[in-house]
Fold this protein.
Amino acid sequence: MLHAHHISARPLLMGVLNITPDSFSDGGVLYRDGAVQIAAVLQCAQEQIDAGADILDVGGESTRPGAEAVSDEIEVARVIPVIAALAKRFAVQISVDTSSPRVIREAAQAGASIINDVRALTRPGAVAAAVDSGLRVCLMHMRGEPATMQADPGYTDVVAEVKSFLSERVAACLAAGIAREHLMVDPGFGFGKSLQHNLQLFRALPELVAQGLPVVVGVSRKSMIGNILQRPVDERLQGSVSLALLAAQSGVSVLRVHDVGATMDALRILEAVRGNDS
């Protein structure tokens, strides 16, 4: 389902479900007072599916700039009940946004079908857990750790460095026995990158797509939009949809978004203008 799309096919939409008290745009909605708000989660999931989400991305660790890492125990308590409830109720694909080998293993048993790791399976034991799970994997580029990644990110050539890192992680996964058709890559917009770095990477999306693996893009509501438009996080819908549309035109395979319906409208317009028979 996530094999390299023909360039004209619509990207899949990955709706975000943040099971955290502190995510940058919607923390504390689905998880508050130390508890998963499961009714709210199911309602949010239903709305995203109705709006056209192909994948639901469940995460229990905020990776916004400045966020501290959370323990395996906390992450398991946040995401595993959610994944189990979603898998029981909906036919949609579920991705788990985690870097923890334990969470990868438990999420696979609970019904997840994709591992979405901002640390690209670099934690000890993560590659082995991914291999054992048999799930598809999205490998993302991040410079540093969320707590400090935006302090002063420096690159000689951000596009070359991101491509090189992702190639190394792909090679490590292939060597460990993960099938190539189970891999996706994500340049990691906003993860240890300045606005200029993000814009350079965005311009290079067709190059990344041309390397043959499905490319995942997550720019929804991020600070690159805030920096361009000078708008707070709750006023970034138009900017988010604009970037999603540009990413779709660049041939990416998956868009990770908060606003599924609005993004789907833009993709349907693009499809109509292109005159696809797909």
Q: What stands out?
A: The two ends are 15 Å apart (CA to CA). Residues 72 and 100 are 7 Å apart (CA to CA). The beta strands are 12-18, 31-32, 35-36, 55-59, 93-97, 114-117, 136-140, 183-186, 216-217, 254-257. The chain is about 40% helix and 15% strand.
